[in-house]
Amino acid sequence: MQVIYVDVLLGTNLFVDFCLLLLNAKFLHLEPKKGRLILGASVGAVGSLIVLVPTMETWISFIYQLLLAAIITYCAFGFCGRALFLRQLLSFYVMSFAFAGIMLVLWYFLAPKGLFIKNNVVYFDVPPVLFIVLVGVCYFIMRIFHRITGRGAVANIDGTLELSFDGEKRKLRCKVDTGCALKEPFSGLPVIVAERKALPQLPKTPPRPIPFSSVGGDGLMRAWKPSDAQILIGEKEKKLGPCYVAVSDSKLSGGDYEALIPPELLDDFM
User: Fold this and answer.
1) Which terminus of the chain is less hemmed in, N or C, by CB atoms within 10 Å?
2) Can you tell me the distance from the alpha carbon of 244 to that of 190, in angstroms, rounded to the nearest whole number?
3) pTM, whole model, 2 decimals?
4) How many CA atoms, within 13 angstroms, populate the side-chain half-sphere of residue 202?
């Protein structure tokens, strides 16, 4: 019979969930406050107490873990629209599932004493050095996946955006923003959001509707595909890939910037 020490259970899961949230933030170009990450990890640690109850049915365990992941995600990153929240939730849930899977493989082949899995919760009561090695292996594997997917850590950076529509160019002050995650529904291309007054003459072709969700409600923005788009950050310049530019009739800031750039357009830029 496995003896479970609650302090070990809470401490190890707090550490593991913090690492997973930190990795999730890097993967999605997020820069949350460390206090929020600790809060989310704390919720995850308390949620790990489910290991103390009798083994649950698979579907009940799945629902529980999904709800717990949603609460952890909200605590760690807040809510900035349904689309972004769902990305954050899905990413964290997949990483948690991958971590549990890696641990299951290690447990199956190495069977270290003091490590077992119940109700999809990993419990560690192993020497500190072995614990650090196990978590480090998992973190290293998921970091490799992070590298393979090509998602850099460009976020919350100011620069200058040059847009061209039918030969007419205009430069805009811009901000690379993790909250800018809009997509053109049919092509799936990323969408830049720019103030109407800062843009050059827009094409006469019919615009593409871009659905968005915000605290004020849902709606549609008009968007066009630019002839050319380049960004200058510091002394580095990059030609942006295919994208759309959605027009905002209201100001995006108090004058600090006139356009919001989705981070995925700048992957591997810095």
Assistant:
1) N
2) 7
3) 0.52
4) 19
**What six digits make up the tokens of 88?**
């954050």
CATH 2.40.70 holds for 157-266: yes
Region 104-119: what's the mean pLDDT?
62
Phi, psi of 99 (to 5 degrees): -60, -45
69, 96 in Cβ contact below 8 A?
yes
Strand partners, 116: 123
CA distance linking residue 215 with residue 172, whole number of Å: 26
Q: In this structure, what token pair is assigned to residue 269?
A: 């830029």
What band does 215 get if pLDDT is binned at 50, 70 and 90? low
Q: How far apart are CA 31 and CA 155, in angstroms?
A: 8
pLDDT higher than 90, residue 163: yes
Kindly indicate the confidence band of residue 153, based on its pLDDT and cuts at 50, 70 and 90. Answer: very low
